[in-house]
Amino acid sequence: MVTSSLNIRRLALRSSASVIIGLACFAPVSAYAQQVAASEPQAEEQASGGLEEITVTARKRSENLQETPVAITAMNAEMLESRQINNVAQVAKFAPNVNIQPVANISGSSASITAFIRGVGQTDFNITVDPGVGVYVDGVYVARSVGALLDMSDIADVQILRGPQGTLFGKNTIGGAIVVNSVQPQNTFDLKLEAATGSFNRADFKGMINVPLSDNLAMRAVASYETRDGYQKRLFDGGHQGNKNSFGGRLAFKWEPTDKLTVNLSGDLNIRREQMSAISLIALQDQTVPLRFVPIPDSAPPGGTDRVITAPSSMYFWNKIRGGAGNCGAPWGGFGPTGPIPGGVSPNNPQCATTQWITGNPDTTWSGGNNRSNFDLWGTNLTLDYDFGNISLKSISAYRHQKATIDFDFDGTPLPVTGFTNNIKIWQASQELQLTGSLMDGRLKFVLGGYYLKEKGEDKEPLEFSFAQFYSGGKIDNDSYASYLQATFKVTERFSITPGIRYTNETKRFDPSFQTIYNDRSALDPVLASLYPNGAFIAFSQCIVGQAVPGVIQPGTPGLEAFAGFPLPGGCSPSATNPGGNHTMPAVQVQAKAKEWTPAISADYKITDDTLIYASYSKGFKNGGFSQRIFPAEFAAPSFSPEFVESYEVGLKNEFFDRRLRLNFAAFLSDYSDMQIVVNEGIAPKVRNAGAGRIKGFEIEGEAAPIDPVRVTFGVGYLDAYYTRIDLSAAPVSKNSKFAFVPEWTASAAFNADVYKGEIGKLTLRGDWSYQSSTFKDAVNSPELFQPAYSVFGASASFTDKSEHFTLTGGVTNLTDKRYIQGGYSDLNVAGAALANYSRPREWFLKLAYKY
C-alpha cells in the first residue's frame, strides 16, 4: 500500500511538473485571443441582473432549458464550484427526487455509486447487473456502476434528466440519465491552477491549460491529484478506512480543418490507490437461522419447491467450530434446531464473534480484513461533427477500460469470519452516429441515430466464510445494437409535438466456469465429517452439478437430504474426487437476449414567451441478467428478466420579472413492471424480478435573482412509491415494503451573495441546505439499514482580487456533522452481520485558485 501511494504521488508530481513546464512554454502566446466576447443576450441579462440562459442537450441538440419539455436539473461550472461539488454523487443533493450515494452495497468500493431517480435505480454493482440510471460523459455511456463516481474537474455542466430516457439515451435509463460535459478546447489561451488543504490532511492540486496551437487547432490539458487521510480508524491495526488518493488527467484536442468539420479527440485517466470505504458493523447474530434456498426448476426431482432448512450463520459456525479452542461454544453437531449457543459465549472473549466488536461510532471500526479499493480507468473519445447546412452528422467513437481490486470485510470484526475481494477487469467499445437537422424552414427538427456497444470483462471473487472458501463471479460478453428517431414538429408558432422511438437488440452472455468451492470447513464438524469426509458443501455441489460418481449415498440419506432440503437425483459419492473442480453451477456459458421498442411522445405549448406547458409519455427498459454470487450449488445460473417503466408526465416552465425568477414544475405517474430487486437466497444476495409497482410524484425547482448581487436556487420533490404486485421469488419483500433508496421527500436550497465589491476585489458568501426524508437501504427493509430523515448544511466564503486572477475560498461541508447511512448490507441469517456506510463528518477546507 505504501509503494502504491508513493507511485501515484510520483505520477502526480510528474504530471504537475509537466503542466508547469507547459505554462512556461506557452505563456508567450497568451496574447493570442485572451478572451471571448460575451453574447449580446447574455450581456444584457447580466447587465440587468437577470438570470442567465441555461443550455441543455436532453434532446441531442442545444436548447434553452425553459423550452425543453423534459424535467431537468442543470448546473454549470460556476454552480458546481460555488457548492463545492467534487463528484457526481454530490450533484444529487440539489436535484429533487434524485438520490445518488457514493457507495455500493455489498462492497468496499470507493469509486462506485448507487443511483436512483424518481424511485428507480439499482443497488447491486456486479458486472452482471445493469444500473437503472445511465451516466454519460461527453456523449459516451458509462456501462458500470463501478467507476461511475466521476470527479468534477474542468466540467462545463452536469444535467440530470428525470424519468425514462429510453428513446434517445437507450437501455438502462429507466430512472433517468446523468449527462456530464467536459469543457472543450477553445481558441484562446487559458490557465487555471488550484491548491486546497483541509481536514484529514487534505492536499489537492489541480491544473488546466488551454492553448491555441494554430488558427484551427487547440489543446486543453487537465491534471488533478487529491489526497486525504481516512476518517474511520481501524482499532485492530491502527490503520484507517475512507481515505482519498486519486490522480486524474485529461488531454483533449479540437481541430477545425474546414468551417464545416470539427474533430474532437480526447483521452482521460483516473488512478486510485485507496483504502476500503468506511464501513461500520452495526449488528451481529451468532445463532442458527432459517436458510431459504432458491426455487428448484421444474426439471428438478419431485418436491422441487421453495425449501427452508436450518443452517448456521457464519458467526455461529466460527464460534462453535473454528473458535471452539477459544471456548466460544460447544461443538455444533450438525443441523440442529435454531437457538443460541449452549452455555452462551463470553461477550468479551477476543477469540469469539460477538457484539463486543460493534463500536457504535461511525469513525471507528474493529475491521481486520484486507483494506484496498484500487481502481484504474482510462478511455478515449473521438467525436466528429460535419455541418451540411440544415443537417449535421456526428460520430462518437469511444473505448473505456477499467480494472479494480476491492476488498470487503463482511463481518466487521478483527476475526477472519467473512470477507471477499472483487477483482474486476472490464472494457467497453462504443460507436454512435447521429444525424440531426431541420426541415420545412425550421418547423421540423429531427435526430436519427444508430448505436453499438461491445462489453467484455470478468469479476473473480475469492470469498472467505467461516464454513467454506469458494470463488464467485464470472465473465461477461455483451453486444447491444440500437437505432432511434425523434422529431419535433412545430404545428404553430407556439404548439409543438415530438414523437420518438428506439429499437434495441441486446445479447448478454455469462460464463460462470470458475465458480468453485475449494476449502470446505464443514468437515471440521464431527457429525458432518462422518457422512461427508470431504465436506458437506463439496458433496452437495458435486451432486447438484452432476459431476460426482453415483451410487454410494442413495436418496433418502437423512444427512444429505437435510442439508439439501429436497431429494437429490440418483445418488452421489461424497468421498469421490472430482478432477473438474467442485463447481457451484454447471460450467457452461448462458445468455439472455432482449429485443425491445421504447417509444416516447411529448406535446408542448408556449402560453407566453416566458411560459411553457407540456405533457409527455415515455418508456424505458433495463435488460435482465444473471446473479453471479452462487453458494451452495444450483442446477443452473440464476437469471432475471428485463424490467420496464412507463411514465406519464405534465410540466410547466416559467420565467418572471425580466428573468429574475425561474420556476419549473413537473408531476408524473410511472408504472414499474418486472422490478429487479436484491434479496438474500442461500448465503448470497441475488437479483429477482419482484413484481410490479407504481410511483407518483412531483418536483418544483426555482432560481431567483431578487437583487443584483444575490442568487438563490431551491427545489422540492415528492414521491409516493409502492408495490402493486409481489412475486413469491421476492420474499421476504411484501406489498407493504418500502422501495430501497427512495425518500418520500427531498428538498434543497442554496444562495450566493456578493456582500462586498470594491477597489480591492469581491467577497462572496455562499450557503446550501439539502434534506431527505427517511429511507431503507435495501429492498427487504432491514431495520438495521433504516435511515431517519436528515438535513445537511454547507457554507463558504470566497474573496476574488480586483484583477480576478486570484480567488481564496474557505468553508465547511456537513456543517452540523450529521452522520447518516449512505448504504450498507444486512445478512444476519448467513453472514451473521449487518454493516453500514456512514457519511463523511464535518470537514473544513481552504482553497487558493489562480486563473489567467
From TrEMBL:
This protein's GO CC annotations: cell outer membrane
Family per record: Belongs to the TonB-dependent receptor family.
Subcellular location field: Cell outer membrane
GO biological process: iron ion transport
Main location: membrane
Protein species of origin: Novosphingobium olei
Ranges of residues in domain TonB-dependent receptor-like beta-barrel: 332-815
Protein name: TonB-dependent receptor
Pfam families: Plug, TonB_dep_Rec_b-barrel
First and last residue of the signal peptide: 1-33
Membrane topology term: Multi-pass membrane protein
Start and end residues of each TonB-dependent receptor plug domain: 65-177
